[in-house]
Amino acid sequence: MYTLQGASGALFGLLGAMLLELLTNWTLYTHKAGALITLLVMIAINLALGIIPHVDNFAHIGEFLTGFLLGFVLLLEPQFAWLERHNLPPGRKIPLRPKAYQLLLLVVALTLIIAGLELKHF
């Protein structure tokens, strides 16, 4: 048995969150196809590098999905909140209100993290 180490899983989590951000704010991008193709090529190249021996591609895929799903929890602002903030009178702010599915996914994510930490001890 060997131990897994390295930051590639975290990078895949960031790629998943970047994909979610791109899809969520799709209308704000001027070069939509270019941004999507660039991100998908980066993901494909990194997954292709997973065929190297002793690289756990399943961990990469899991971290990608985790980053994508946690993006729903952590990206609280709605799509046009930035534009709305700049059109408001000075001193007034838009409160961040998490949606019900964000709170549910947060509970699921925390449960899975705690369960994963407990399984790691066995």
Automatic annotation (TrEMBL):
<keyword id="KW-0812">Transmembrane</keyword>
<feature type="transmembrane region" description="Helical">
    <location>
        <begin position="58"/>
        <end position="76"/>
    </location>
</feature>
<keyword id="KW-0472">Membrane</keyword>
<keyword id="KW-0720">Serine protease</keyword>
<dbReference type="GO" id="GO:0006508">
    <property type="term" value="P:proteolysis"/>
</dbReference>
<feature type="domain" description="Peptidase S54 rhomboid">
    <location>
        <begin position="4"/>
        <end position="75"/>
    </location>
</feature>
<comment type="similarity">
    <text>Belongs to the peptidase S54 family.</text>
</comment>
<protein>
    <recommendedName>
        <fullName>RHOMBOID-like protein</fullName>
        <ecNumber>3.4.21.105</ecNumber>
    </recommendedName>
</protein>
<feature type="transmembrane region" description="Helical">
    <location>
        <begin position="100"/>
        <end position="117"/>
    </location>
</feature>
<dbReference type="Pfam" id="PF01694">
    <property type="entry name" value="Rhomboid"/>
</dbReference>
<keyword id="KW-0378">Hydrolase</keyword>
<dbReference type="InterPro" id="IPR035952">
    <property type="entry name" value="Rhomboid-like_sf"/>
</dbReference>
<dbReference type="InterPro" id="IPR022764">
    <property type="entry name" value="Peptidase_S54_rhomboid_dom"/>
</dbReference>
<comment type="function">
    <text>Serine protease involved in intramembrane proteolysis.</text>
</comment>
<dbReference type="GO" id="GO:0016020">
    <property type="term" value="C:membrane"/>
</dbReference>
<dbReference type="InterPro" id="IPR002610">
    <property type="entry name" value="Peptidase_S54_rhomboid-like"/>
</dbReference>
<feature type="transmembrane region" description="Helical">
    <location>
        <begin position="33"/>
        <end position="52"/>
    </location>
</feature>
<dbReference type="GO" id="GO:0004252">
    <property type="term" value="F:serine-type endopeptidase activity"/>
</dbReference>
<keyword id="KW-0645">Protease</keyword>
<keyword id="KW-1133">Transmembrane helix</keyword>
<feature type="transmembrane region" description="Helical">
    <location>
        <begin position="6"/>
        <end position="26"/>
    </location>
</feature>
